[in-house]
Amino acid sequence: MLPNRMNLTQTTEEHLKKLKANTGVTPNVSARIAFFRSIESDFRYAGTEAKLNGSLVLDKITWLGDTAELTELLLKMYYPNQDAKQLQQAWAAHVADGVASLRNHTRLLQLSDNI
């Protein structure tokens, strides 16, 4: 479903790196949290293609970890007619949406209380 190598927009990536500097949570883990926060908030990808120009290109398993199957199933459920590239765009849009609620945390305890 999703391609084996994925990346995000540069802006989203910068927010994830800032969050890591403040809390110690790695970008791949915070991206997972952001994705599920976005899914819970009923955000839906509108099909607008974003420029995925972030320099952090990781394989799918590193980005998604143990949530890979669930993430792909949710994307396929919400966007059944999308191909792999469009699903990556949807995943990146959800991470960008979800990171907005996480990016200003300055401590791990503050972040965990908010989750």
3D structure, described in words:
The chain has 115 residues and is mainly alpha-helical. It has one domain: Arc Repressor Mutant, CATH 1.10.1220.160. 58% of the residues lie in helices and 3% in strands. It is built from six helices and two strands; from the N terminus they run βααβαααα. It has helices at 10-23, 27-40, 60-64, 68-78, 84-99, 108-114, and strands spanning 5-6, 58-59. It has a two-stranded antiparallel sheet with strand order 1-2. The protein is globular, with a radius of gyration of 13 Å. The N and C termini lie far apart (28 Å). The mean pLDDT is 89.
**CATH fold type:** Arc Repressor Mutant
Classified by CATH, the class is Mainly Alpha
Q: What assembly state would you assign to the polypeptide chains in this entry? A: single chain
Q: What amount of the residues lies in strands? A: under 5%
**Record field, number of beta strands:** 2
Rg of Cα set: 13 Å
Count of alpha and pi helical runs: 6
The H-level CATH homologous superfamily, spelled out, is DNA sulphur modification protein DndE
* Class from secondary-structure proportions: mainly alpha
Give the count of structural domains. Answer: 1
Give average pLDDT, whole number.
Answer: 89
CATH architecture classification? Orthogonal Bundle
Largest sheet: 2 strands, antiparallel
